[in-house]
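Worked Example 4.2. Consider the chain below.
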Amino acid sequence: MLDVNYFDEIKIGLATAEQIRAWSNGEVKKPETINYRTLKPEKDGLFCEKIFGPTRDWECSCGKYKRVRFKGIICERCGVEITRSKVRRDRMGHIELAAPVTHIWYFKGVPSRLGYLLDIAPKDLERIIYFAAYVITRVDEERRHKDLPEIEKELEEEKRLIEAERDDEIKARLRELELRLQELQSEGAKAAQLTAARREAQREVDRITESANRELQHLDDVLAAFKNLHVKQLVADDAVYRSLRERFGDYFEGGMGAEAIKRLLQDLDLEAEVKALREQIENGKGTRRLKAIKRLKVVQHFVEGKNSPLAMVLDAIPVIPPDLRPMVQLDGGRFATSDLNDLYRRVINRNNRLKRLLDLQAPEIIVNNEKRMLQEAVDALFDNGRRGRPVTGPGNRPLKSLSDMLKGKQGRFRQNLLGKRVDYSGRSVIVVGPQLKLHQCGLPKQMALELFKPFVMKRLVDQGLAQNIKSAKRMVERSRPQVWDVLEEVIREHPVLLNRAPTLHRLGIQAFEPVLVEGKAIQIHPLVCTAFNADFDGDQMAVHVPLSAEAQAEARILMLSTHNILSPAHGRPIAVPTQDMVLGLYYLTLDPEETPKDEDIPRFSSPAEALLAYDHRKVGLHSVVKVRLPGKALPPELLPETVDVDAETNGTRVPLVQTTIGRLILNEAFPEDKEFVNRPLSKGDIARLVDECVHMYDRATVERILDNLKELGFHYATRAGVTLGIEDVTTPPDKAQILDRHEKEAAKIEAQYRKGIITDDERRQELITIWTQATDEVKDAMERRFAQTNPIYMMANSGARGNIMQIRQIAGMRGLVANPKGEIIPRPIKSNFREGLSVLEYFISTHGARKGLADTALRTADSGYLTRRLVDVAQELIVREEDCGTDRSIPVRVTIETPRGEREPNAHLDTSLFGRVLAEDVKVGRTKIASRGDEVDDRLLKELVEAGVDTVRVRSAMTCEADYGVCRLCYGWSLASGKLVDIGESVGIVAAQSIGEPGTQLTMRTFH
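Applying the procedure from the previous section yields the following structure tokens:
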């Protein structure tokens, strides 16, 4: 057996009967498990101690030998070896089958490996295996050819005899009829009686003729079948096969069930098959060639893998160790058992019954039925439910077979091997930590102490605060004051990993430097919530401690949250202020309510002076001011009109910029050389600003900028005092007029429909158009009514939360809704949520809510499965080399000509061209704009668009000629770093996650 601690690799393959018997410690002959009185395992049963080892350490079954000194002795009375009871976890048994069975994985899998190997259709294969048809396994062609004339002569003779016999019988019958008629006439019978006698005789003659014809036809069928007999031919007619076997049993062999399949596999020459299939592929066409390719794949694998195809038919099946399919006693004296025991019991029962029937030499039909039942029992044991209805236990629950133990989320691989529980980890609820820096997380003290316990204990001993590890452990458990100081030292430079399930992409696990906090909740930085898709409504996160120096270095260099500001999916920032922060920054940078006359605008010599005036309440947050900004870069639009030419400072001209106090405060968050921002900031503007900063500054500066924006956002969201009141929801006063006008239009359409001028479909379309228009008009009227500082409008307009469509439903009208089929109901909901819906409107609305919930449940699983399949196909795609040297490339449209003859940029440039490497020089006329090998960044992208370039050719992963994976130049930028991808990057998995993550988010976001 395999030593689980020392091995290099595991290969999963087919086990032959010899290997199964070699693994086994004995044959399981009885279906019994344990004796209900003694509670000891039954001899030769599924829990037999002789086969699987003792149930108690160093003690045999009968009790003759007890204690460790008898180790290794086999008790002569009960046959049990004296050893540890844990051997019952790895000793296997086996069941010798009375008839061979096929392995269901190989014949019922898709594609059917057995079917491809033997070139038999899966349907036919099923009929053979389950005793519904015979198959010919061998034909003596030569002998048949030689003896055929003789056989035909014999059969002709037989036919003549049958015909002669038939004629004789008919004559005898007719003679009988004559005598009978004479007898009746002499008795003076009536005509009706004579007719009845004649009819009776005719019926008898017809029966004799039909019977003879059937025999003759049967002989013809048998002869035709014999002439055309070939290997792998199916004979579905029982009578024909029996006659063939009786008459020509010397010329061929055949059978049904797994025995016939086994004989076919024995005669299969894999090497010759490979040769024949290669010829077919070279010379064949169409479906035959395609089939040959598929078959070659399977046959080739058998040749290369050194697996014997005969192993697909089993003569013995392994019985897994009893402690892996335990039986435990419950409180009421009853037993709970693993489903495998029931499945094994079925196999053993049927196997024993088949042995008995074979000993009794039972009729073939009974034996075949028992063999079929044995095949089905083994199928259920290996993969219950793969074929036909699954075998069920109490309560109609399908029993868990060996395959079910391995497959799926709860199976051995995903649950226990990939999903092991790890040491040095913990989990807790998350709360927001607005005071944290971007690279920090708040770790509860008790949790940190438990996670870093061994490190703390070692440091306590090193510092002489404890004499030995034992006393250090006691100190830690009693939470002595010295322990907390040591813990601070230990965690100072030690990053921890935070993970939030489900981990849909690589940003689902990030590294942070821990900061000790009171309480029991983990604190996380508000800006990393988007990457984790976390919110604070009770989400939990797991903490893991990287132990080795390499793991710590990897966490710090690759996984630290400050290195994951850009999304690997689209290359744009993902750590961007959201919600409250957006609202705060929007409020801070709002346009002034009204702009005073130029002479009334206060002027300041520097931002510091302006902010001092603000602190002294001389100016308000949204007051218009004119400020000199020495050393500050200004955007072009601020320069021409607003420069005060007369003002001079140290001989250099410094422009006076018209702005607001709020915008001056905002610009304090950015470095000096960042262009002055002088506009109201919505969510999109903030994202663009962060994007610019990421490409302009180093990571430490970007982190500072993000933290500054976070602080400002929260501070001014609080200062703004934005709250929602029912009075903020203002329904437009002209709503009723708009609806009346459209109601009249709708009535006209209805009238036209009733008169038969338009069809029902046209009516629906017209009504939908009318009410969509009405909804838009109400929305526009509502927007015009909102003040700039209306809290609801501020939230939607800044992009902090909600959108204008949702506000329309609260303050305007709900509009048209769809039914469960997805069709729009042409009757609108004219009320809004502020006014309240009528009963009918309410019930029309309920469709959408219910559908949303159902979709979320159903689609999330599909989306997760899609991600796994994408990862499966793309995981081998890794960046392996610098440059594959290919000349191939793909074209990408840069600009598109409009009907008016102007050139417009392609809408998808960000996804199709950004971050690629040019494959050819780009020229406009005779001017070269870019060279082969240039990387397309934002600057070059802008130049190409401005120059009106139509198409450029770029390197692509699709045209890469690297032997393995892709090369750096064909792949282009790693979007997560904004520079050329590193060698060794798993770009395939990144791509799969980039498609799978948004898919899952979309399905889950339907209702939250």
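The first strand starts at residue 24 and ends at 27. The longest helix spans residues 141-186. Compare this with Example 4.1 before moving on.
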